[in-house]
Amino acid sequence: MIRAAGTAMVTDADFATEVLKADLPVLVEFTADWCGPCRQLAPVLSAIAGEEAERLKVVQIDVDTSPETTIRYNVLSTPTLLLFRAGEPVKSLVGVRPKRKLLLELSDAMGNES
C-alpha cells in the first residue's frame, strides 16, 4: 500500500473511532494497492496532512481490506475522498486533483477560510 506520509491507515474495525468520533474534520481517502491515481494523490495528501494538521486529520482506508466501510459509503471508484465533520460525510470528491484545488474544494466544507 502506498501510504501518504503523515496519514494513518484505518480499517473497518477502527473507522468509527478514528473518523466518526474524531474531534477534527477527517479527510478519508478510499484507496487500493492497484490504484495508479491513488499513488499520484499520495504526495498531495502528505502535504495537506502536514500543512493542515491542526485543522484536519487525513486518513486512508484500503477498499480491498475494508469492504464494509467502502460499501457503507457507496464508494465505487478509487481514489474517492470523503470529508467527515462531526461523524457525518459532508463532501465527496472522486479522482486526483492538485493540492491547491483540493484545498479550495474542501475549505467550505471544513468550515474554515483558506
Automatic annotation (TrEMBL):
* Family matches, as InterPro entries: Thioredoxin, Thioredoxin-like_sf, Thioredoxin_CS, Thioredoxin_domain
Keyword entries, A-Z: Disulfide bond, Electron transport, Redox-active center, Transport
Q: Which Gene3D superfamilies does the UniProt entry name for this protein?
A: Glutaredoxin
UniProt-listed SUPFAM superfamilies: Thioredoxin-like
Domain called Thioredoxin: residue spans: 1-112
Give the similarity note. Answer: Belongs to the thioredoxin family.
PANTHER family reported for this sequence: GEO12009P1
**Protein name as annotated:** Thioredoxin
